[in-house]
Amino acid sequence: MKERLVVIPTYNEIENIEAIIRKVFSLPESFDLLIVDDGSPDGTARRVRDLQEEFSPHDSSRTSAASRLHLLERRGKMGLGTAYIDGFKWALSRGYRYLFEMDADFSHNPEDLIKLYRACAEDGADVAVGSRYINGVNVVNWPMGRVLMSYFAGVYVRFITGMSIMDPTAGFICYRAEVLEVILHNPIKFVGYAFQIEMKFTCWKYGFRLKEVPIIFTDRTRGVSKMSSKIFKEAVFGVLQMKISSFFRHYIPRHETARNTQEPVNAA
């Protein structure tokens, strides 16, 4: 069984994609990569294919990064949430045990993948969340207005949903495969900013153990942010809709960890 796969969605990330791939492959522990590209007009997918060719082995006896670097190309910009879901389904069908989601722009430090993995593989978490707010506010290069918006979005989500997660909008996460097999059994509705909230809320409702791992989030220095007012509005109103819909849905734990967990969320 394959161990670890990092899913990175991309749209116009030509300035970052090679560096992030090389950085992940340079880590002291081995992680496979799946790039899910939404038809980037800047040639992001083409650069990934070039790297696959560069890392290809000269003979069948060698193990190289080629077997660890994968590309899933989609037609057009279809949304962050569907990119992750398609990537997760791809990984589950190939037997990976731990699945990660991470941005391509180095706002998430690839070295923290190891901390997220250990939180699940060694500390018993079902979901490890790279948290900007579990130990104060650990954000670099964001304007104060965006820091406040992000922080109070978490306050709002905790108030509406009842979760105790300090960073419910975080997008740097490790999932055990069993978790995704359960929560993807029913459709995840949101595709933008609210996708991250819905995934955590669904995991929590099923009784899986969520653990926040402190990270430092650094805003991108290359490329263009995909954040927009439309995405933010989806999160604000989507949380209310998600909470109301949960009253009419039965969350029956289908995982041994869920049955044994007394506290649905561990945000320590």
Describe this entry's structure for a reader.
- The chain is an alpha/beta fold and 268 residues long.
- The protein contains nine helices and ten strands.
- Helix 5 packs parallel to helix 8 (229-246) and helix 7 (193-205) packs parallel to helix 8 (229-246).
- The longest helix is centred in the middle third of the chain and has 18 residues, at 144-161.
Write the layout of secondary structure elements.
Layout: E1 4-10, H1 17-25, E2 32-37, H2 44-54, E3 69-73, H3 80-92, E4 98-101, H4 112-121, E5 127-131, E6 139-140, H5 144-161, E7 173-176, H6 177-183, H7 193-205, E8 210-214, E9 217-218, H8 229-246, H9 256-260, E10 265-266
Parallel strand pairs: 1-2, 1-4, 2-3, 5-8, 6-9, 8-10
Antiparallel strand pairs: 4-7, 5-7
* Whole-number mean pLDDT: 86
**SS-based structural class?**
alpha/beta
Q: Looking across the biggest beta sheet, what order are the strands in?
A: 3-2-1-4-7-5-8-10
In whole angstroms, the N-to-C terminal distance is 31 Å
Residue share in helix = 25-40%
Q: How many strand segments?
A: 10
Beta-strand proportion: 15-25%
Helix-strand pattern, N to C?
Answer: EHEHEHEHEEHEHHEEHHE
- In one word, what is the shape? globular
